[in-house]
Write a structure and sequence with these properties.
The protein is about 50% helix and about 10% strand. By secondary structure, it is mainly alpha-helical. It folds into two domains: about 160 residues, Butyryl-CoA Dehydrogenase, subunit A, domain 3 (Up-down Bundle); about 30 residues. It is rod-shaped, with a radius of gyration of 38 Å. The protein starts with a helix and ends in a 17-residue tail after the last helix. Keywords: Membrane, Transmembrane, Transmembrane helix.
Length: about 210
Amino acid sequence: MTGQGRRELTTAVLGAVVAGALALIAGGQAWATVTAQRRAPLPPVSAELSGAEAAPLVPAAGLVLLAAAVALLAVRGTGRAAVGLLAVAAGGALAWSGARALAGGLDDAGGDLPGLAGATVSDTSADVSATWPLLAVLAGLVAVATGALVVLRGRTWPAMGRRYERTDAAAPATVAAPARPRTDEDRAVDAWKALDRGEDPTEDPTGTPGRDV
């Protein structure tokens, strides 16, 4: 892997991790305080609306981006481009969810919260805390930029660990050493060994006597 490719891959992985972490943080916070107006003489009631309740796509997109960060290290080529497109889609969902909350899209989102629904409720309104929707928008922008980088450049990045792989074709062939011709000294040593075993060194192993040693 070239130095530039390694830096780009590291940037993409970190971008996906950062975007995913920001999305999960934002999704776990209270995005708004929803107030339900009830018919007189009942007083209004309020409840907090979390990011996961206000925009379920936010924590889901965060998990997708963290999974994409791992996938970037494992796949290459067309598969890596597909991961990049998935990151772009997740980033778009994050940015849309945050922008919708900031634009007043949560006024009716608290209708299913305990105590804020029923025949006595006449109207609901949401007091949005801009910090966490903005964080979701930021996470979405990071995810879109990361995904675009992967789509445009990711196919040129080799998979991590590929440089350490060895193929059988690359392994050096083992060459058998040529057999050394037998000398008179070798035959004399064999004869003494045969005598030690109680054998007649002049006999042929096939049973033909008189073999010259």
